[in-house]
Predict the structure.
Amino acid sequence: MLGRILHLGVYAFQTLRRGVWFLSRPRTQGVHAIPLTPEGKLVLVKLSYAKGWRLPGGGRKADEDPVAAILRELREEIGLTAYEAIEPVCEFEHRPDFRRGQATLFIVRDVEYQPRWSLEVKDVEAFDLSALPTDLAAITHKLLDLARLGRS
């Protein structure tokens, strides 16, 4: 019960932040990962304040290296404990929640992880690439398409 109340608080806080972003239209930097397990499964997250399964990722500080940022996000969101390789896919512009953003997309191979309880993340799960969940967020579809285009 306490976890549910805390998740609702995070949702309310994010809603308030979106309102501020609507007015200020800040410029942001971000990172997103396509984390693949040694078995080739895709690790996705469900956030407490957004709908659908998503790729792990988030904001990056102005002086933070993109690789350091994505490793931090993976530790925070999926409980990353090990990985084999990180490959940059592309940089792209997007406008999440009224912000103007530039983000870097990475493929992170052979990830090992141990999910832990978080205010932000409700669920972490690995999916076979041929059997992804039907409720993928639109941004997840977009980023997976970008990765396919960047790899062809």
In short: The chain has one domain: 2-151. Residues 41 and 113 are 12 Å apart (CA to CA). The domain at 2-151 is CATH 3.90.79.10 (Nucleoside Triphosphate Pyrophosphohydrolase).
